[in-house]
Amino acid sequence: ATAPLVAFCDADASMDPALLPHVVDPVRDGERDLVLGRRIPSTRGAWPLHARIANLELARRLRRITGVPLHDLGPMRCGRRTELLDLGILDRRSGYPLEMLLRASAAKWRILEVEMPYAPRVGRSKVTGTLRGTVTAVRDMSRVLAEARAAAAGADRTPGGGA
Hints:
By secondary structure, this protein is α+β, with helices and mostly antiparallel strands. It has one domain (about 5-160): Spore Coat Polysaccharide Biosynthesis Protein SpsA, Chain A (Alpha-Beta Complex), CATH 3.90.550.10. About 45% of the residues lie in helices and about 15% in strands. Strands 1-3-2-4 form a 4-stranded mixed β-sheet. Belongs to the glycosyltransferase 2 family.
């Protein structure tokens, strides 16, 4: 990719790509470094209860670690390509979105969450739709969180709190 901005959007029809400007514009205009689309279910069955509960817990942990007032790991997001690459994200599976947020927060990025309608997906989720996918996602995200906690604990033990 060579474009200055990179936008992410799941291709399962749960979020309307026509709404990408809501996450792109604040980055393009220099107001924010990373913008996430917060999922707001448009129907009762749009977001399975187990997935919503897991996301709420993950967002709570993320807020506690980063101090960033996030409510969702939003699958629609936008950031500047070179800065995203500079984050040095290592995870290539389910931990990627979480690692992006943790590293962006550590880099003092200006992060914004905007509400987006969330519709029932087309097809079955490879993550929350199968036991294997769910176990893999939990394992990946738990590892990313553990690494973040270990890094924070190490910084707190250095003289000056890691500064």
